[in-house]
Amino acid sequence: MGRVRSYILSGVGGQGVIRASDALGRAALSAGLEVLISEHHGLAQREGSVWSHIKIGRPPLSPKIRSGRADFVLGFELMESARNLPFLSDRGLMISNESLIYPVPHYTGDVRYPEKSEVLEGLRRELGDRLILIEADRLAMEAGSPKVVSAVMLGALAGLDALEFDWELLLNSLVEVVPRGAEEINRRAFRLGMLAVR
Amino acid sequence: MLAGNVLDGRPGDRRLMLGNEAIARGAVEAGVRVATAYPGTPSSEVLRALSQVASKYGIYVEWSTNEKVAFEVAYSASLSGVRAMAVMKHLGTHWVIDPLAVAAVTGIRGGLVLVSADDPLPSSSQSSVDTRMSARLVNVPAVEPSNPREAKELLKKSFELSEASELPVLFRYTEKVAHSKGVVELGEPLEWDGRAEFVRDPDRFVSIAPHARRNIPKIFERLKKAESFVKSEPSVERMGPASGEVGLIPAGVPHLYALEALEELGSELPILKLSAAYPIPREPVTEFLESVRRVLILEEHEPVIEDQVIVLAHTAGLRTEVIGKESGLLPRYGEYSPDLVERAICSALGMDCPPGPRNSVEVPRRIPQLCAGCPHRGAYLAIKKVLRRRGGGVVFGDRGCYNQGVNPPLRAIDTCVAMGSSIAMAVGAKKAGLSDPVVAVIGDSTFFHAGIPPLIDASVNEAPIVVAVLDNSWTCMTGHQPSPATGITAGGRKTVSLLPEDFALAARVPYRVVDPYDLRESEEALEWALEEAERTGRPAMVIFRRECVIQVLRRARRTGRRDGFKPLSVDPAKCVGCKVCVSIGCPAISFDRGSSKAVIDQGKCVGCGVCAQVCPVGAIGG
């Protein structure tokens, strides 16, 4: 590994991108590493795009990832994964939820968003086996709540050995940042995510 | 979220903090006694974080009515001898220029820092101005950090700089610093045991023209003191080789992009990193210019440092070539990126530039909507319907969540300018002779911030407009800070809760209060207001009152009581697939192409019932 490992987490408002970024950052901190997370705030609660750039390693750490330099794009929603494709490096992995969330203007016909098949086809063409699809919505339901997609996705990241520290640190810090009472369900979701890629 | 507070801990503890939180911690460590703010992205988390530890450290915090008030409260605290800061986004800083200029004339006593969050992209602002220019305009020092760790240290230094120069300091930082989380080590909080004391000095503090004439020259002596304060580390950092063909003077976030780009390019260059943006320290900069033939200035927004460097090089008779914005290499707008900085460095070195980013799987922008159950939706639907009945009208918008009303499918507003502009612009349209009905839409926090003077204007100058106040009791767009309508202070204490109608009454503007979840009641009130305005030739007001649904849901989650939030559903046997419910722009409603029926997401719907009121066939129910 080089000086820095770079991750992009992306999704739609309400999917827990910021919380998952926090978990990843805290885990890196507890492993004694330097970390910088740049969050795209605003409009998160209003169905907008949400993303964060995360760098773990040694300083200097700037808040944005240069195009073509992200080691991982962890996408909680398929269109938001595609949006971040230009950041992925030649050898980087895209781990994406296979499901799509359309905004309202899609249903009213005001804006034309791509079909799921178009997005999948484009990503497969660009990435081949560097695209890893996760049925995160289904696994989250299996864990007990549609709200733990982020835990499934972090689990997948851990399952792919994408971390430079023990995956249990990530699980511990995830449990730290979730609401009280939701710890168990997040643990389950994390493990299902891990199993899905192994 | 988490128990405990990120700001609280022992010196030496390492914490993952937002830039905004690091600034708040910096205030604790600097011994700040008074901290004020008006919420505005990207600055809002500073006071939120500080308010959580304020009582422990004996800091007075307040959400001020607007930024001008925030600055004046802090300025006065400084004149009483304590350290004070006012926090705001760049748009608020514009409001402060008047008293800020006077503070430069009078000078300050306790350290005074104006924390000004710029939004170069912009990611959440209607314009994007470099507030270092405001510091330059009124001749007060400006500084800028590049990451959260630096933000904390530089904020502390800014108080020393302010006291050393007797000038308020403008602490400019950008969205990328505000919303980056980095590892920050806690330092020792400064114990302040002084007593506030106002020392009368009318020749100085009563800035009437004869006094101002005498005191204005002192600004420039103070600036000299500021310059001498910033001529050494950490305001100036010298890195890389001692001399070279090409050197860099970076400031703020572009400094970090430059370091990464140099690593990427495998090249080492002389670097003079500046945290002081105005005035720049002439001595070390001159020395640096003498060590290179060509210097690339990297700073976001305007060429503030660059122009000073050009003037300095010219007056010192140096032949160093200065490149950056003035030479046309870099833009004066937009947020810088690692790609842009790398290309600029390549260009300065005469190397081939790497290609820019491209996406072969394009996806259109995800258009934000009002939340499911947002009370603004009902208000907009009523306004649209009533205006449609009258053959159209103009809707002047304002600053807040209700901006989302511009997006398809609602498309409910025609303008968005500055805080409080809606009402004055409605007046202007009528005075221009517009015969169409005119509605000004303004939220409660925005109304208290800047809507009252234009309401008085509309009343006194007799403008037949309708003012629609969307009163949801909170400042929501920026993260649900209390507004004057909420009845809670920044410190969490109960206080009076103000009502917009009391101001309408005082301004002699007739009003009605309605529930925006009730479309018929809302439409009737608007019809009344439009007729009233037409009949009397004066303004009328409709107050759409219902608490922000996000806050209601949060409270329900906390207390475990979720009664009244029963999701609705579509009866497929009755649904005719007309999409009228889809067209209200609710994120809980989608449309199934297979069956040609609307579908309500049971996880998102809060049961506000607005869609059921628009459904022409009664297919939506609980």
Describe what you observe in this structure.
The complex is a heterodimer of chains A (198) and B (622). Chain A has 198 residues and is an alpha/beta fold. Chain A has one domain: Pyruvate-ferredoxin Oxidoreductase, domain 3 (3-Layer(aba) Sandwich). In chain A, 41% of the residues lie in helices and 22% in strands. Chain A has helices at residues 17-30, 78-83, 104-108, 116-127, 136-143, 149-159, 167-177, 183-197, and strands at 4-12, 34-39, 49-57, 70-75, 88-97, 131-134. Chain A has a 6-stranded mixed beta sheet with strand order 2-3-1-4-5-6. With 622 residues, chain B is α/β, with parallel strands linked by helices. Chain B is 38% helix and 18% strand. Chain B has 20 helices and 25 strands. In chain B, α16 (444-460) links the parallel β16 (438-443) and β17. The longest helix of chain B is centred in the middle third of the chain and has 21 residues, at 209-229. The mean pLDDT of chain B is 96. Chains A and B meet through α1, β2, α2, α3 and α4 of A and β1, β8, α10, α13 and β23 of B. β2 of chain A pairs antiparallel with β8 of chain B.
Main sheet properties of chain A: 6 strands, mixed
Q: Kindly report the greatest chain-chain contact and the residue count on each side.
A: A-B, 61 and 60 residues
Find the structural class of chain B using helix and strand composition.
Answer: alpha/beta
How many separate domains of chain A? 1
CATH uppermost class of chain A: Alpha Beta
Distance between the termini of chain A: 22 Å
The main sheet of chain B comes to:
7 strands, mixed
What is the fold named in CATH at topology level of the largest domain in chain B?
Rossmann fold
- The CATH H-level superfamily of the largest domain in chain B is Thiamin diphosphate (ThDP)-binding fold, Pyr/PP domains
SSE string of chain A: EHEEEHEHHEHHHH
Q: Any idea what the shape of chain A is?
A: globular
- Supply the number of structural domains of chain B: 4
The DSSP helix count of chain A reads 8
CATH architecture of the largest domain in chain B: 3-Layer(aba) Sandwich
* Shape verdict of chain B: globular
Q: Which topology of chain A does CATH recognise?
A: Pyruvate-ferredoxin Oxidoreductase, domain 3
Mind telling me the C-alpha Rg of chain A? Answer: 16 Å
* Major β-sheet strand ordering of chain B: 3-2-4-5-7-6-12
Number of beta strands of chain A: 6
